[in-house]
Amino acid sequence: MFWSLKSIPVGTLLRLKKVYCPVDFEFVNYTIITSKCKGPHYSAKECCAAFKEFACPYANLLNDLTNDCASIMFTYINLYGKYPPGLFASLCHQGKNGLKCPASSSPPPPPPPPAEDKNGV
């Protein structure tokens, strides 16, 4: 069933609006996943360990349903790794609340600022 925007109450539209993700997942290094999770026979042990290593530092953002971080991250994981859609959801399970991340996971540091050239630019 398709909904017309006119038939949806304004309060519902406001609740559906997602906040922009503060992490630019386009430029994050996916080598942790792509070097360990290889097809055509994807190993749950290797793929899930690599996925957790990559994603756990961003767990708070990825679990926040008010932003689009998870959607964007999975788009780039599937793009760069050429993984079938839903691979990690089907392989990686640790209970009804999803994967458990170590308490000490912290995001990787941001990339260094560009170096100035000799002209100060």
Mind explaining what this structure looks like?
It is a single chain. With 121 residues, the chain is mainly α. The chain has a domain of 67 residues. The protein is built from six helices and no strands. The N terminus is likely disordered.
Structure summary:
This protein is mainly α and 121 residues long.
DSSP helix fraction: 25-40%
What's the average pLDDT?
Answer: 79
Radius of gyration: 18 Å
**Judging from the principal axes of the Cα atoms, what is the shape?**
globular
Low-confidence spans: 1-8
Strand content: under 5%
Structural class of the helices, strands and pairings? Answer: mainly alpha
**Spatial separation of the terminal alpha carbons:** 55 Å
Q: Write down the secondary-structure element order.
A: HHHHHH
Number of strands: 0
Number of helices: 6
**How would you sum up the major sheet?**
none
Annotate the secondary structure layout.
Layout: H1 10-16, H2 31-34, H3 44-55, H4 59-62, H5 69-81, H6 87-91
